[in-house]
Amino acid sequence: DAAAHGEATTEPQNVAAEPFQVLARDGIADGSLRDGDPEVFGALMASWAGATYVNLRTTFGWKQRRARSVVVDQLTIAFALDRRD
Predict the structure, then answer these.
(1) CA–CA dist 51, 81 (Å, integer)
(2) Which of 16, 33, 37, 61 has its CB surrounded by the most CB atoms within 10 Å?
(3) DSSP calls for 13-82
(4) What's the pTM value of the predicted model, to 2 decimals?
(5) Which pLDDT band holds residue 12 (cuts at 50, 70, 90)?
């Protein structure tokens, strides 16, 4: 594994982050997400979405639909291209 040995790689370094990195790469390319590093965006999305969702469900006892809605809304606000200009 190249990442484990400190070698540069374009492959996602975390299986959980991979779908988010692909989403980020595609969104940046098509202009629906603001410009940035898709690897960083993917890692942030995976960490933020997973940890926040679990915390809202377990610590706060939120229902699935409410937790999912809030997480998706916040991710959209954080990463979407601001088109208010």
Answers:
(1) 24
(2) 33
(3) S-TTTHHHHHHHHHHHHHTSB-SS-HHHHHHHHHHHHHHHHHHHHHTS---HHHHHHHHHHHHHHHHB--
(4) 0.67
(5) very low
